[in-house]
Design brief:
Keywords: ATP-binding, Flavoprotein, FMN, Kinase, Nucleotide-binding, Transferase. This protein is an alpha+beta fold. It contains three helices and four strands, in the order ββββααα.
Length: about 190
């Protein structure tokens, strides 16, 4: 049974299949626990990242990192479409646009909120990160049975690429339908 996650902030694990020349393939993950590196706060405990049990890197360029993920309309930015935004807790040396990503959602932190300013949003993201790291460090909350899937197993590369093409085609069709609908609305308005 397929279930869509509810809107709000979730936590779990994310994996990336980094391209062959990505510099992060040569170094261990550098987990970035704070949304802003210069943030210092006495209102919460800094969690020891050494307690996280992340698996070793795989030979197929897949790397696993802890994450928090916002699902919904992100009212602060006024999004009109439901989206998923993943905040990966790692200090990357380089962007990874175009690389494959897999997400394993393990828990729910809170509902979506609107904010009066960016600082309030960042403060809540930092709290979300703290909650996620503490949760993921608990016994039985590690990568566990999802590890092989997160490390790129379970699909052949051909099937993975086929599923990606299918998803892209569905997105193109949806966009074309929406565009046609908007054009039809404009035609109808012009007739009035």
């Amino acid at each position: 049974m397929k279930m869509d996650p509810i809107d709000g902030v979730h936590f779990g694990w994310v994996s990336l299949r980094l391209h062959d020349t990505h510099p992060d393939l040569q170094t261990p993950p550098k987990i970035q626990p704070q949304h802003s590196p210069d943030r210092k706060s006495k209102d919460h405990a800094i969690f020891p990242l050494s307690d996280l049990k992340t698996p070793p890197p795989s030979s197929s360029n897949w790397r696993i990192y802890p994450m928090v993920m916002s699902i919904g309309f992100n009212p602060f930015y006024g999004n009109k479409e439901r989206s998923a935004e993943v905040f990966i807790m790692n200090d990357f040396q380089e962007d990874f646009y175009g690389d494959y990503m897999r997400v394993s959602i393990l828990g729910y932190i809170r509902k979506e909120l609107n904010y009066i300013d960016v600082e309030s949003l960042k403060n809540d993201i930092n709290t979300d990160v703290d909650v996620a790291l503490k949760s993921l460090a608990r016994e039985n909350w590690g990568v566990g049975k999802e590890e092989s899937w997160l490390l790129g197993e379970g699909y052949s590369q051909e099937l993975f690429e086929e599923k990606t093409r299918e998803a892209e085609e569905r997105a193109r069709k949806k966009e074309a339908i929406e565009k046609a609908g908007k054009e039809k609305e404009k035609e109808n308005e012009a007739k009035i």
